[in-house]
Amino acid sequence: MMQRNKLCIAMLLVLGASFASSCKKDYLKSDQYFKDRLNIEKTFKSKVYSEEWLAHVFEEFKGENADVASKGLTPHCFADDMYYGDRDKDYDPSKNELSYNMFKMGQYTETDKQGTWTQSYRGIRNASTFIQNIYMNTEMSAAEISDYRGQARFARAYLYWLLLRKYGPVPLLPDEGLDYTDSYDDLAIPRNTYEECADFISNELLQAAKEMEALGMKRGQDGSARPTVGAALAARAKVLLYAASPLANGNNSGYAALLVDKKGKRLLSADFKEEKWAKAAAAARDVIELGVYKLYTAPFQETGDDATVRPPEDHNFSDKSWPEGWANIDPTKSYAQVFDGTLSASGNPELIFTRGNNQPNEGIDQMVIHQLPRSATGWNTHGLTQKLVDAYAMNDGRDVPGKDHEIGRGNGSSRVVGYVTQEDYDAKRYRPLRPGVSLQYANREPRFYASVAYSGSFWTLLNETKPENRNKQIFYYSADPKGNGFNSANGYWLRTGFGVKKFVHPSDTYEGGVGSRVVSKAEPAIRYADVLLMYAEALNELSGSFTIPSWRGGSYALSRDIAEIKKGIHPVRIRGGVPDYTASTYSSKDELRKMIKRERFIELVGEGQRYYDLRRWMDAPVEEALPVYGCNVLMNEKERDLFYQPVAIWTLKTTFADKMWFWPISHTELKRNKNLTQNPGWTYND
Question: 0.90 cut: is pTM over it?
Answer without folding.
Answer: yes
